[in-house]
Amino acid sequence: MGHQFPPPKKSAKAGSAPADHGPSFDRADLFASIVDYTADAIIAINEACEVEYLNRAAERLFGYGREEVLGHNINMLMSKPHQERHDDYVATYLRTGAKVILDTWRETEGRKKDGTIFPIELGVRECWVADRRIFTGIVRDLTALKKAQEEVARKNADIRELSTPVINVADGVLVLPLIGTVDSARARDSMEMAITRMAQDKAAVLIVDITGVPAFDTMVANHIISMATCIRLMGGHSILTGISPATALTIVGLGVDLSMLSTRATLAQGLELAVDLVRNGTTG
Amino acid sequence: MQRIEIRDEQDIVRARTAARSLAETLNFSVVDKTRIATAVSELARNVVVHGGGGYVEVESVNAEKRVGMRCVFVDQGPGIEDVERAMAEGFSTAGTIGHGLPGARRLMDDLSIEATPGQGTRVEIIKWIP
Amino acid sequence: MSEAIPVLGVGPVLLVSIQNELTDRSVSSLHRAVLERIQETGAPALLIDVTASEVIDTFIGRILSETARMAQLMNTDVVLVGMQPEVAITLLEMGLEIPNVRTAMSLEKGLEAVGYRITKIDDDANPSVADITESLGTGVGDAKD
Predict the structure, then answer these.
(1) What is the ipTM of this complex?
(2) A86-107 pLDDT, tens per residue?
(3) Burial level of A280, CB count in 10 A (0-12/13-18/19+)?
(4) Hey, is the C-beta of A196 within 8 angstroms of any chain B C-beta?
C-alpha cells in the first residue's frame, strides 16, 4: 500500500537523495518522488491548518524554502481577506461538514515570500491517512493566463475603437461617422465611446454623420435618440447630418421624433452649425 | 465574497461603494461600473424601505468561461406580493416611485427575484464582463 | 448621520453641489433648502452641479428633477451642470431623462446659460468658485442688486 502522499520526513529524503536504482524499490518512495517533482504545486495541511508537506513546485511558486513553511499555518501563503479567515473556514467545515471549496476548483490569490499577491487556481481535497484528516491543495499559477486575458481584452478594445472612430474636427466638435450596417452591439459601443470622448475632450458638440448608413431603421434611430438624450443630460449638443432624401422619407414614414437634435443635410452644414454653437453656445 | 449589512440609508452608500470597488478590481468599464453601483443603490434602498433591513453579498463569479459580478440582496420584509407588477412599475413613466427593479434589470445582464409573501425577498443580479 | 447639502450663493446665483457619498436623507432635504434660499434671496438662477456624482439612481434623479421643477415654479432659471457621461447613460437606461431642465457641461457654461459671464479671469484656466464670485459683480445679465 502506498501512502496517499508522503509524510514530511520521507519527502525530504526523496528530495535530497534520489531513490536508489536497485531492481526492487519501495513503491512509497516512488510515489513520494513523483509528487515531489510534479509540475503543479502541492501542499498538504492537517486539521490545525499546519503545513505537513509541500513539494518542490510549491517551494518555487511561493519562494519559500521547505523548512520555512513546514509546521507553520498555511495562511502565510494567502492574501488578505482569506489570511485572517482561513482558520474559521476550516473550523466551520470541521463543525458542519458543509463543503465550500472542497472538491472544486476555484480562482483565488496566493502570497509569495516577497509579499507579491498573485492569481492562482486552487483545488482542495480531503483524505484520511492513518485516521488523520489531511487536506491536500493543488495550486496552479494563473499569472501568465491573466496577463494573456488582459492583453486580449485590450486588443479587443483597440479593435472596437478602430471600427468606430470618433474624430476631433474642430475645437470642441467631434464627428462620429456611422458607416455600413449598424448592429446593436456596435451602435451601443460607438454611442458609449462618443459620449465618453466628449467628456474627455471637453467637446460641446457631437455630429453624427449617417451618410454611410445604407438602411436607416428604427433601431438606428433609437440609438441616435438615446445618444442625443445622454448628450443633452451632459450639457452638450448633437447634430445629425448626412440625411438623404430617402432617409428623410424613412424618418417621417416611421414616425421617428428627432426633435431633440438638430439635423442638417450635409456634414459641411453640420460643421457650420457646430462651430456656431461652440462660439455662442447655450443649451435649450 | 463580501457581505454588507443593510440597516439604514448610510448602508445604501456603503453597499454601492463596495460594489463599485469590486467592479473596479474586476476591470469593468467606467459605464458598467456606474451601472452596477446604480443598480446596487436601487436594490439596497429596497432592502431598507420595503424589506425592513437585510444584507447584500457581493462577489465575483466565474462560469462558462465568463467572468462577472454577482450581488444577492436578502431581506426579511413582507415580500413583494406581485413580482410582475413590481417589475413593470415605473417602467414607462420616468421618476415614479417604484421598487427600482425595472431600472436595475435594465442596467444588469440578469436579475432574478424570489419573493415569498410574509417571508422576505431575495434578489440576485449579475453583470458579465463583455 | 446625515448632513444638509449646502446651498451656496455665487453672486446672485444659487449653487448646489451634489456629492457622491450623500445619504437619501441629505438628498431629500434638498427641496426645502433650495426653495427657502430662493424665497430669501429671490435668486434668478439655480445651478445644480453634479460633476462629482458617480451614481445618480432613480431616487436621487427624482429629487433633482423635482427640485428643478419647484424652482422653475418660483421663476428661477435652473441649469443642471457637469453630468458625467456614464451617469447620463445609466439614467437614460433607467428611463430617467430629466426633461425640461437646461443643462451645461461646466459651471462656467452654466453661468453663461443663465446670463452671467466670467469677466475677470487672468491666467487661470480653471477658475475656482471664488473667482466666479468675485467677477460676477461686473458680469452682464439681469442681476438684481
Answers:
(1) 0.84
(2) 988 898 888 888 887 788 888 8
(3) exposed
(4) yes
